[in-house]
């Protein structure tokens, strides 16, 4: 008998799951229905800042597969249709057509929840005013661009200094805006330790971006027409013709919560290694709406990245399609940039290590991206954490210029393999003067960390 797979969410995790399941099962074996409330499917949300900046010229360059292409693969994709309720006991979902308002129930044998995440928008006065934008979907990006094209002024305030915040600050600066970043943290990029975040602060200030740290936004001030005109803190007001929220995202799990599905500390769905929702044999979840296992700390985390979402979808699709796959977890690798400054991290920060009771040593080294005598060699700072007694690598942060960020992948592999910093010093990495010094900066840090571990044990 033919089964029915219902997918809630038409981006990375949801449509990867649908596509993989279709590869494994024919339409005669498996009917696939997918609901997407937006106008686009299978797109790169991570590319939105570069579209806004103009580095990516056309919106459609960010779209990997259109609704028509999915339908050609025998996936019944229903656009502009929002799922409003999950009836777990009845094995069905209620969906509303956002154009007509019509609602209907759809039964499922296998349900995939891929509802993504939503920009953090605190309930402060003026946060919903015209001119205030979150940036999570292509619809969000288009709305922001429409505002930028209509706005005569050239003052922008970005609230928050995480990945989205710093990337949007660059995008707006490239569009000719005077940019102020208001950040409640001690330094930008809270995914880094404060000493590394300070390097980002200095670089952004050097680019002409006004940085306001240790500042809590209290409200968005509006003009006589109700549009945003400034962002206020306890101490000051910052004029704004447009406001962009870069305060991070939260799992979009209102449906799951209402259906009494298990949620974790960060509000994300909890799954097993097969991405099946815990305690529910016929419900899977993936992408930005789930929490995943941190392989270094052993705790669940919420990490919203397209790389993970696509992997989750592949795992879900394989399992729904009758195969077998698992997603073991992550080490927390991420990279970003502000103009020519590259920022990377993987593993634990100092506060993360303390939170799980680990004793550790830290080292910080200054090096260059190439041999110092080779033209174009650029400075790079590498910070490394290692477990105090065992020398196990715990985390790496890198801030530098061209050639810095992707070096974090060396550390990501070492973390996944459970290597010690001593073992890392023997890694056989590629070397030539145009690509690195004789000792790669990551290996210099590993050598220094291994010495620190030995000294700490004496």
From TrEMBL:
Gene3D superfamilies the UniProt entry points to: FAD/NAD(P)-binding domain
Taxon lineage: Bacteria, Bacillati, Actinomycetota, Actinomycetes, Kitasatosporales
Alphabetical list of SUPFAM superfamilies matching this protein: FAD/NAD(P)-binding domain (SSF51905), FAD/NAD-linked reductases, dimerisation (C-terminal) domain (SSF55424)
Provenance organism: Streptomyces himalayensis subsp. himalayensis
Domain Pyridine nucleotide-disulphide oxidoreductase dimerisation intervals: 336-438
Protein family (similarity comment): Belongs to the class-III pyridine nucleotide-disulfide oxidoreductase family.
Keyword annotations of the record: FAD, Flavoprotein, Oxidoreductase, Redox-active center
Domain FAD/NAD(P)-binding: 4-310
The protein's name: FAD-dependent oxidoreductase
Pfam families: Pyr_redox_2 (PF07992), Pyr_redox_dim (PF02852)
MF annotations from Gene Ontology: oxidoreductase activity
Cofactors required: FAD
